[in-house]
Structures are given as structure tokens and as C-alpha cells.
């Protein structure tokens, strides 16, 4: 069952929170004031979290334009060359925002790996799995959910990879 945030801010359900509830995942909703291009630095600062524990959901594609998701620490970038090598692709590049929106069903800045429009392979930076809790997008700009990172492996089938570049 989802825990309510102690703030008076009401956050309506999203496909991501509906999906998490349907799977029986406990989570804490963390609303914050969204800032265009603020990224994980802004959300972490707004919520008093370490940016390393805020996980961004990135929609990318391989050389055949097949979509995939990468879950990465907020304070790191993805080495697309390393990722491609680890997943057996010739290349991996970020999707254009409108393409990412179409694949995920979410607006960029509010992309969650849960309850996506299209099923896609999910890759997770392996060091994320060492954290006790992560904050990841809950399906809307300005809304994160705090969960145990193992949820991503157990319920999404996320494959651990090592492709982080410290920003």
C-alpha cells in the first residue's frame, strides 16, 4: 500500500503509481516544484536528497531504432559506447524527446520506467542496486517515488550494466 506524503500537496495517480500499486510495491510519493531543465540536481535539492540516489529514466535506441530504457544515477551520465558494448548493440543513442514520449507514454522530464506505453528492455547501472532506497520518476514532471531499487530488477526485469560516467 502506498504511503501518503505528509505534505498537504495532493498528487493524483499516474500510470506509474497505478502499476506500482497493482504490483503490491510500497512507495512514498515525493512531489516537488518542477523546473524546466532543472534535472536531478533540482529535484534532489528540492527534496533534500543526495543526487546520487535520484535515478533518472532515459529512453534511448539502438542502431535499429529499437527503444530501450536506462536507469542512471542523477549525478552521472551514460557512456553510450560502453552500454552498447555491454548489451551487444552496434550503437546506442538518446531518443529525440518526441520519440521518447511516444515510446514511454510520458513527457520527457516525467518519464517513469513503470507503466510505460511500450514494453522495452530496461538496463540499470549496477551500483544503483547497492543503495537502500532510490527516488525515481513517478510518471509526472515534479513527482518522484521512493522505492527499493531491487523493484526494478524483480518487476521490470532490469539488467544490471556498468556504463556510468561521473559528471
UniProtKB/TrEMBL annotation:
Signal peptide: none annotated. Its EC number is 4.2.-.-. Pfam families: tRNA_edit. It is an enzyme of class 4 (lyase). Residues 42-150 form the YbaK/aminoacyl-tRNA synthetase-associated domain. Belongs to the prolyl-tRNA editing family. YbaK/EbsC subfamily. PANTHER family: CYS-TRNA(PRO)_CYS-TRNA(CYS) DEACYLASE YBAK (PTHR30411:SF0), CYTOPLASMIC PROTEIN (PTHR30411). This is Cys-tRNA(Pro)/Cys-tRNA(Cys) deacylase.
